[in-house]
Each structure stands twice: as C-alpha cells, then as structure tokens.
Amino acid sequence: MSNEDKSSGLNGRLVFAIAAAAVGSGFQHGYNIGVVNAPGKLIQEWINYTDYTRSNYTVVPTEATITWIWSVAVSVYCIGGMIGGSLTGFFAEKFGRRGGLMVNNIFALIGAILEGFSYSAESYEMLIAGRVFIGINCGLNAGLAPMYLSEISPVNLRGAVGTMYQLILTISILISQILGMENIMGTETLWPYLLAFTAVAVLYQVPALMFCPESPKYILITKGREREAER
Asked: Could you read off the pLDDT of 18-41 as tens digits, one per residue?
C-alpha cells in the first residue's frame, strides 16, 4: 500500500466492502428499473395468451385489459420501493447496516423466483408479486447501502464513496438493456430468465458481506461496544 493510500484511509478491506455494498445493492436497483423495458411487448403477448387460455379459449382479452395488467406489473415495483424505503430505519437499527443488507436479499431472492417461474406456471399474478418483492428490496437498498457506505468511509473519501451506488445503478440499467436485446435474452422463452437474473447479485453480495465490517456507528451507538467500534 502506498503512503497516499495510508494517509487517505483507503485499504483493501474498505475497497472490498464498498464493492460488496455498492455493486450488490446498486445492481439490484438499476437492473430492475430497466429490465422490463426491452421484453415488454413479449410479456404483454404472454399475458394476453395466458388470459385467453384461462377462459378455455372462449373470451379474447381486450387491449385495455392487457394494458392494465401490464401497467400494474410495472408500477407495483414503485409501491414495493415505497414500502422498502419506509422500512429502512427499522432494518438499520434491528439488523445493522451490513446485516440489513444481507437480510434484504431475501426479498430479492423471493422476487427472482416468482418472476422466473411465472412463465411456466402461466401466472401473471406471480410476475406482479415478484415485482413487489423486488421493489421492497430496491427500496431498502436505496436507504441501507448509502448509509453503510458513508459510515464505513473515512471523512475525506465519503463524498466519492457515496457516489458509487449511483454509478453502479446507472451501469446496471445499461446492462439490463443489453441483456434484453432480442439476440441475447429478450426472446419469447428467455425473458423469464432475464427477470430472474437479478438473483446473481444475491449470490454475490451475501457471501461478500460476510467478510465485511459492520458500521462502526451502529456498533457504538446502537450496541454500545466502544472498543469494537474503535477497532
């Protein structure tokens, strides 16, 4: 490590913790904002076919019905986000900043499973429910990740580290658009896997966070362990 790194407080453990929190959480947030855009037409066609089969091929769904179902599937992500955002304080104090991020991955995993199996189960209700759980996950990420990053960073690096979440979020929107292209995963059979791909971030973040420190502010103020917080 160079003298500059020592004086700035930058070290390998801090870089690893920043990557675990920012990449894992920011990816979930950005990816799920953009992932439904590219395969939107295919999903609407699937909703149309699913609704038609449920009527024993007797009632053709109207365009207004399909649009309404699709609108709900897209917009419930925001409702989930509001729920997750309102729970940030509770999770931060109950589980800690790092612990809250780890527990939050449960919502992402449930959402990925529901979205991924919605096609084979012929249930757009599962797709809608999955978007709610993903929204809760992203709402919590938006509060917990910046909080954790700011509290583990030295004062002189706090501004730069705080921007990492937004940077990863923007990059992950781009990734979702690329993966959603027709010649990659934006096909009639692969779009469920495209939505479920968000589980990859869970598989990365949970093991990574196990090797990261908890926020010293949480250890000191909430747990009252002064010596451990100082360390």
From this structure: 999 999 999 999 999 999 999 999
Q: Looking at residue 156, what DSSP letter applies?
A: G
| Distance (Å, whole) CA 219 – CA 231 | 11
Please give the structure tokens belonging to residue 20.
């675990």
Q: What is the pLDDT of residues 97-126, one digit of tens each?
A: 999 999 999 999 999 999 999 999 999 999
**Torsion angle of the four alpha carbons 147, 20, 141, 221, in this order, in degrees rounded to the nearest 10:** -30
- Among all chains, which residue has been given the structure tokens 């910046």? 146
Q: Which residues of 120-134 are buried (b: 16+ CB within 10 A; e: fewer)?
A: eeeebebbbbbbbbb
pTM for the whole structure:
0.90
Other CB atoms within a 10 A radius of the CB of residue 230 amount to 9
Query: Which tokens hold the place of 14?
Result: 């801090």
Angle (CA) 64-133-97 rounded to 5° is: 145
Q: Report the C-alpha gap between 23 and 171 in whole angstroms.
A: 10
* Closest C-alpha to 200, from 112, 137, 116: 112
Upper half-sphere CA count for residue 87 (Cβ side, 13 Å): 21
pLDDT band at 151 (very low <50, low <70, confident <90, very high): confident
- Binned at pLDDT 50, 70 and 90, residue 229 comes out as low
- How far apart are the C-alpha atoms of 66 and 51, rounded to whole Å? 9
